[in-house]
Structure prediction request, 262 residues.
Amino acid sequence: MTDLVIREDRGAVAHLTMNSPGSLNALSDAMLAALKARFSELAEDTAIKVIVLKGAGKAFCAGHDLKEMQRGREAPDNGRAYFADLFFRCAEVMQMIPALPQPVIAEAHGIATAAGCQLVASCDLAVAAEDTRFGVNGVNIGLFCSTPMVALSRNVPRKVAFEMLTTGEFISAARAVEVGLVNRVAPHEELAAETEALATTIEGKLGAAVKIGKRAFYDQANMDLAAAYEHTAAVMVENMLWRDTAEGVQAFIEKRKPDWAE
Prediction:
């Protein structure tokens, strides 16, 4: 099962490759299970500081496996129970990404459509090849991308999200950067290097600080302004009391490299 998502560690950076190029890395039942298994193991891996998620072959991810979904209709209930379970499992995997202690970078190329676009939007950061296209195009086949809408509408302005959802039209990588779906764009041949550069920059920071900061980032986003400040102030107090943070501050004052224990 986990061969569907290949893991390769390069130092403290884990590279996960969705490995079903024949289906454009569709989020089949097996692919969702493989992603869940990989995310679960990485959640407990303290040696890994950054995760990169990519797709094998011509595309990042083409969304749900429509042929598999159609087979679900063969059940006596016309697929109702299967579809409910499928969308629950997919949402579970998407929510694992912001809950992971490590920042997750999507390395997108080719296409990222429907639940594949949702996957990019669910990642903390994204780098795309300049010829990548993004879309939530289920409406073109009569299926509004309601679950992908959750992650998309939390990344891009509401009118941009609604236009993408109702027209089914693709946006370019350049437009994806402009609206906030993607952080960086690179020529296709430089995509891996650009992603690695971003991962290496984050890897070089104090891992515990990035971990506590990522958790606080998502926690405060769901609070009102006063509660967010109260919460993040408490997080900063905890952070400031660490030995490695005291060392980092002193190293900055003394204009030297910090001697972190991590």
Q: What stands out?
A: Residues 76 and 233 are 54 Å apart (CA to CA). The chain has two domains: 2-203, 207-253. The chain has a mean pLDDT of 96.
